[in-house]
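In this section we walk through a basic example: taking a raw amino acid sequence and producing a predicted 3D structure, encoded as discrete structure tokens. The instruction is simple. Fold the sequence below.
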Amino acid sequence: MRVIHEMKFVARLSSGADEWSCPACGRRVTLRRLPEPQLTVLDPGDESAVHVGVIEPDARAAGAAGATGTAGSAGSAEKYGLGPVQNVPRPPSPPAPDAADRRWLAEIGIDWDDDAAA
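The resulting token sequence is shown next.
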């Protein structure tokens, strides 16, 4: 079962990005919104946890003033239909190329894992 952590809005930076922090694991990110969205991870924290962040009306002002926001990550997650995440499967890794594929890769100038394929 995956753990859900609630990210808290910390502040709006001079760059216009929002800074978010997870009090449970220390994850910190900056998030710049449209028209040029960008996510920058400042501290990865617990990368196995699912992190959610919700801005309620006037939460930016409250977050900048030090308020804690909602009652807890479970409440926020359920409120927005995220619920407890039990299993988030990742796609399987593609298979390594076989001998014929490695020969073809070598013919076009690509060495797979520094291995001469031909």
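Looking at the output, two observations stand out. Confidence is low (pLDDT under 50) at residues 59-73. The chain has three helices and five strands. In the next section we compare this with other chains.
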